[in-house]
Design a protein that fits this description.
The chain has 388 residues and is an alpha+beta fold. The chain is 43% helix and 16% strand. The strands form four sheets. Strands 1, 2, 6, 7 and 8 form a five-stranded antiparallel β-sheet that branches. Strands 5-4-9 form a three-stranded antiparallel β-sheet. Strands 3-12 form a two-stranded antiparallel sheet.
Length: 388
Amino acid sequence: MGLFDSIFRPNKDAQKAANSGIFKTLTGYKPVFHTWQGSLYESELIRSAIYARARHISKLKFSSTGSAKMGLQAKLKQGPNQWQTWPQFLARTSTILDVHNTAFVVPVKDKSLTTTGYFPVLPTNCEIVEYKEEPWLRYKFRTGDVGAVRLAECIILTQHQYRKDFFGETNAALEPTIKMIDLNKQGIEEAIKSGATFRFWAKMNNFTMDTDLKKEADRFGSLAFGGESDGMLLFPNTYTDIHQYDNKPFTVDADQMKQIQANVMNYFGVNESILQNAAYGDSWAAFYEGCVEVFAVALSDGMSKAMYTERERATGNAVYFTANRLQYMSNADKLAVAAQLTDRGIFSINEAREVFNLEPVEGGDVRTIRGEYKNVNELENEEGNNEN
């Protein structure tokens, strides 16, 4: 059994839904998703920006609350599915979302059609169809396989969503920048090739017939560039006004290249410090709030909705993806925060150790408060008793 059969378990409802009609939307657009055929991920700069986001998102931690579906919760704490770890799952989902502005996560089911995990898929085409008065997602893949899953069981992450009710827009807005990057790359390649060659032009005298000009050109080429040539060019007096041909291929200057880089980084919400792993403290916190946290909230809500029923969510069952932001502070800032929050009983000993990437210790889950701190109400009662 292959990966497709393991995820899209054959059942009668799925097979019938795969042949159902299109689900009607409010905007009038057909609810159809197509993978964009642009060369977005083939650009070194754009891939670096996308991977920078995925790299940090892959460090999010999965957690869940509530008592519903305890078996599934236990499996998800070990990993999202039998083929991936959580970092792999998160990085791939983030990459798909950035490249296509729409990412699909489908449930993985066992033989009894019980959900055992989740897997991010990359279909070439996805349509929302209607079956039994309920929307289903019909996926088509490059292999020609077609699978259908209830929309309520799937997770759809989108960004740049405007005209479509369910899916995000393409990255066509970035296409002019991609073309500039590609043209500049070609210009650099041509400049290197031209720099390794020498070209000359000259005027030939005393020739009136085209056949004579061709014979002289062939003779000179054979003499100068033949197999026994020693690399010297000797021009007889039949040639005048000899000049070297100066070829200057066009390349983008430094200021224009910075603008291209800025366009890419602005589009994906990153900067040089994020790309080069130099961000920490407030710089990384800003990136976390503008990028990582946005993804974490979207995936947390999406998985909670797909995993639990409305009643289960109302009773406190939910999925969360979180990150320890304090680990990206400077050591001085870490020490100050850990000392202040531990003294006030906000952090336990093990939580303070986690900030410094230290392993938990036995008995370290307790919270302590410095002796000089007292409850305000207790102080008021003591003052009242003293006055009496």
